[in-house]
């Protein structure tokens, strides 16, 4: 049988498949969409303006030329849309705190609320300047922040500091740690301890650890009478719980709390270890008591 001509046969070559578009552009668009929905949680791109922020140490702050006039617009200036102006206003808060505190005190609650709000800003320069302002507020006003008029505002500020101290940005974290240290050094231990007690049970393990460090620093400043006012049983239970925490920072804080309690309880006793052992065993389950007793050895 004769073969058919193949002049009209389909070509054997496979047509070239269209190239896929890179997914980077799609991802970038999705990021932009998310940014437009919730700008507060978006990390801003590096800006040359960041270099214009000058982090002035507390010792180098100068008095304001016209503090009576400046105080009138301070809260409004802190709420500006211009972040550079907000940074300048935060430095004014620092000047008022350290050099014109009597003018700032009547609006201290409002100022603390705004400073805590500014700490939530994703721009690192703003966040750090707000933390520095918080530190100077602690230095200037101390226990006045725990009074009823400012107590709620202080609660919000404390939480933001613990969150910022738990961040991965090192220079923000270090500044927040420094502010927490100034806070503990500027306030009476017992009322501050009651504030911090809430956060050593926080679901965020890093916040829990930072709160534990500040709490242990408070306890180290307390005598036996103050510890008794807080509650010896509750305090040793806090130490026992933190001793099983996942983070070494929290466990170290637990050891510090237990050591401070041991020194306060046995200060005037000749049978130091017997008293300490009896106390731990009466306040804690056996397994927890054993863990605490291992911390202090004769």
TrEMBL record:
InterPro entries in UniProt: ARM-like, ARM-type_fold, CLASP_N_dom, TOG
Spans annotated as Disordered = 1-42
Skewed-composition ranges (Polar residues)? 28-39
What is one GO biological process annotated to this record?
A: microtubule cytoskeleton organization
**Name of the protein in its database record:** TOG domain-containing protein
Q: Which gene encodes it?
A: LOC100806408
Report the residue ranges that make up the TOG domain in this protein: 60-290
**Record-level GO cellular component terms:** cytoplasmic microtubule
Gene Ontology molecular function: any one: microtubule binding
Biological source species: Glycine max (Soybean)
């Amino acid at each position: 049988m004769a073969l058919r001509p193949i002049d009209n046969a389909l070509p054997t070559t496979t047509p070239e498949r269209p190239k896929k578009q890179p997914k980077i552009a799609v991802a970038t668009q999705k990021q932009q969409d998310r940014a437009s929905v919730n700008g507060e949680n978006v990390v801003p791109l590096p800006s040359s303006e960041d270099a214009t922020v000058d982090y002035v140490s507390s010792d180098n702050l100068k008095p304001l030329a016209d503090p009576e006039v400046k105080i009138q617009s301070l809260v409004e200036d802190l709420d500006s849309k211009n972040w550079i102006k907000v940074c300048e206003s935060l430095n004014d808060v620092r000047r008022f705190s350290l050099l014109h505190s009597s003018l700032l005190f009547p609006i201290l609650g409002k100022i603390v609320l705004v400073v805590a709000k500014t700490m939530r800003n994703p721009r690192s320069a703003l966040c750090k300047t707000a933390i520095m302002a918080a530190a100077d507020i602690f230095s200037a006003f101390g226990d006045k922040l725990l009074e009823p008029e400012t107590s709620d505002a202080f609660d919000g500020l404390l939480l933001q500091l613990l969150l910022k101290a738990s961040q991965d940005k090192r220079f923000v974290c270090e500044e927040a740690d420094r502010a927490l240290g100034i806070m503990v050094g500027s306030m009476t231990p017992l009322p501050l301890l009651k504030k911090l007690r809430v956060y050593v049970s926080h679901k965020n393990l890093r916040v829990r650890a930072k709160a534990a460090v500040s709490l242990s620093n408070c306890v180290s400043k307390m005598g036996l009478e103050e510890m008794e006012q807080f509650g010896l049983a509750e305090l040793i239970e806090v130490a026992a719980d933190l001793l099983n925490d996942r983070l070494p920072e929290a466990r170290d804080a637990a050891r510090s709390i237990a050591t401070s309690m041991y020194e306060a309880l046995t200060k005037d006793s000749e049978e130091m270890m017997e008293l300490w052992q009896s106390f731990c065993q009466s306040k804690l389950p056996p397994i927890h008591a054993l863990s605490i007793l291992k911390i202090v050895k004769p």
